[in-house]
């Protein structure tokens, strides 16, 4: 029975830890638009560097949301500065990871809006964890748990948004 409580606590802990990244990623979609990060640049193969999906406004807004959420978490835990820095790194990392995922998709010929299973769900997680890694040392168990939880949350949120008519595709 104690194992179940520990697992539930671990699940809640990793969701709470990743909240700045999760909310930054969602905020970039809500507040995005405008000039793309790649400024319309295409590589020699004629494909865009990243595409229109990753924008300066979305990246800025999402990063600010990560910073604010992390700052609030830091206020709760007693260190606003540490929380804000963690939130900033998680938020910015999530958005850079998402942009890197778009870069990879363009290179392998997957158009914007088309699915790339696992990459679509975890690119922002890899970016967030990479950027925050100099500050926070997570055990491998937590990293795996973050990936599993993120895939479930990501697909669930997309399915709900699709059923509500907010998305054209369920993925």
TrEMBL record:
Family annotation (InterPro entries): CarS (IPR032690), CarS_archaea (IPR002726)
Subcellular location field: Cell membrane
A Gene Ontology term for the protein's cellular component: plasma membrane
Keyword Oxidoreductase: no
Pathway assigned to this chain's UniProt record: Membrane lipid metabolism; glycerophospholipid metabolism
Known catalytic reactions: 2,3-bis-O-(geranylgeranyl)-sn-glycerol 1-phosphate + CTP + H(+) = CDP-2,3-bis-O-(geranylgeranyl)-sn-glycerol + diphosphate
Enzyme category, top tier: transferase
Record GO biological process: glycerophospholipid biosynthetic process
Domain of life of the source: Archaea
Enzyme Commission number: 2.7.7.67
Molecular functions per Gene Ontology: CDP-2,3-bis-(O-geranylgeranyl)-sn-glycerol synthase activity
Pfam family, one: CarS-like
Cofactor requirement: Mg(2+)
Keywords of this entry: Cell membrane, Lipid biosynthesis, Lipid metabolism, Magnesium, Membrane, Nucleotidyltransferase, Phospholipid biosynthesis, Phospholipid metabolism, Transferase, Transmembrane, Transmembrane helix
Transmembrane segments: 12-31, 75-97, 142-165
Topology of the protein relative to the lipid bilayer: Multi-pass membrane protein
Keyword Cytoplasm among UniProt keywords: no
PANTHER family cross-referenced by the UniProt entry: CDP-ARCHAEOL SYNTHASE (PTHR39650)
Similarity annotation: Belongs to the CDP-archaeol synthase family.
Record HAMAP family: CDP_archaeol_synth (MF_01117)
Role according to the record: Catalyzes the formation of CDP-2,3-bis-(O-geranylgeranyl)-sn-glycerol (CDP-archaeol) from 2,3-bis-(O-geranylgeranyl)-sn-glycerol 1-phosphate (DGGGP) and CTP. This reaction is the third ether-bond-formation step in the biosynthesis of archaeal membrane lipids.
Name this polypeptide is given: CDP-archaeol synthase
Species annotation: Methanothermobacter wolfeii
Gene: carS
